[in-house]
Amino acid sequence: MTTTVTAEAPFAPEIEDVLSVRRVRPALRTVLVTLGTAITVFVLATFATFALGAASGSNPAAVALGEVATQADIDRLNHVFGLDRPFLVRYLDWISGAVTGDLGASWFTTIPVADSIAQAFPVSLSIACGAILLALLFGFAGGILAAVSRGGIVDRAVTLLTTVSATVPAFVAAIALILLFAYAIPIFPVAGYVPPEKDLGGWMLCLVLPSVALSLDAGADIARQLRTTLVGTLQENYIIGARVHGLGPGRIVLRHALPIASTPALSVLGVHAPRLVGGAVITEVIFGMPGLGQLANRAALQGDVPVVQGVLLITIAMVVIIGVIINLIIARTGGTDRSAA
């Protein structure tokens, strides 16, 4: 009697586990590479920042003690500040303290730098986030309208507006908005800052003008990039197949074409992230908002290096974090399946 041996098919749960692992590995690899790059950029940028502060030649001991101070007094205070230690030792102490939230103290006010930044940081973060949201809103709305009306009046209007917006610096736009809304249309406040816990409506109103001024350049570039990629995507075969299947224009654009075309536009936002964060520091000075820009400006005029280094550290961290988020979003949207179903 012949015995036939048949191979048992793997259970469905085992197949699903294998497929899940294969789907997780590329995503995990993307996260690890992105985090590794972010940490490298952060370390290099903070090292350069600390080196510039050390090379500034600022002598806080001499300034604090005055002209009557002896060299022995200056050396004693420099020892208190830790300025007589080697550069690498000071950097390692500074960066290790920064990781735990200790950024040292001001040379002149002795106030902890972390406390000063904690008061100013919400202002700069609010402006930067507002500018990013408006840039995405203006950019995606303009890019979609221009793409679906290619060659029409709306397309030409969007092209004209984006061209003009891209050529106007943020500080020029800020001054123009102040003049417009301070005299002609006094709707929004042109100076000052209201914390959200005090008045949520007032907080939103005071962010409108600085966020608009800061978002024009990024919004224009996003709109132009999205318009270009979306026009090409709408001519792909799977989009034509979706039209043949009777899908509506809105669903075709938003559900099938936009996820593919948005990846280059998000890459543009990643390029503009340092400008948006750095521009927030500059824009808040124009609008008289007590953020990191005002703090850094006062510290730089006094030669208060620990405060300046602390502000630069937080600014670098904001840029790196925003870049990581954008890269992860791009990696996620880049994997969208092109399906007309």
TrEMBL record:
InterPro entries: BPD_transp_1_N, MetI-like, MetI-like_sf. It is found in: Cell membrane. The keyword Magnesium does not apply. It is a multi-pass membrane protein. Gene3D superfamilies: MetI-like. Residues 121-330 form the ABC transmembrane type-1 domain. The chain crosses the membrane at residues 31-55, 125-148, 160-188, 200-220, 276-295, 307-330. Its main location: membrane. The keyword Transmembrane applies. SUPFAM superfamilies: MetI-like (SSF161098). Keywords: Cell membrane, Membrane, Transmembrane, Transmembrane helix, Transport. This is Peptide/nickel transport system permease protein. It comes from Microbacterium murale.
